[in-house]
Amino acid sequence: MIARTVTILITLAMLGCNTDGSSTAADSATDNNHDHNQGVETIQATADIQAPDGLSFTSAARVSMALDLSDYPQSKAYLSVYSQYQQTGQGQWQIDYNSRVLGRSLTQQRIQQQLTVAQHIPSLLVVVWFYDQTIAPLMYEIQVAEHRI
Known about the structure:
alpha+beta; four-stranded antiparallel beta sheet; two-stranded antiparallel ribbon; 2 helices; 8 strands; 15% helix; elongated; disordered N terminus
């Protein structure tokens, strides 16, 4: 019984093959109905790609800041700029101090500073901290969208 089963399986496997290596009519009909290029796009050279009007490849925004601290002539201060913060219902700023994008001590009364930030940042919070704790920090929000490169 086992010998018969093996013979039948070998015979069935050989039915699908032609001894001359050609395919049967059923095989060629199946191949003609299958589109091998279905879903394949034509390859385009990089030089041929065109961006639509209005598309900007800029990934950063440049912000120019000008600070005038002449009202605080004897006070040492520190400048911090933050990208993640929110204003509470009481008008206070809740700052994520890990989001600081600029920090520097201020040695002059008038400061010009340029800063480049990622384009996904919509606004920045500029804070001037005074070493004299009797003077409250100065806080300004800058809309980055107005300063895009």
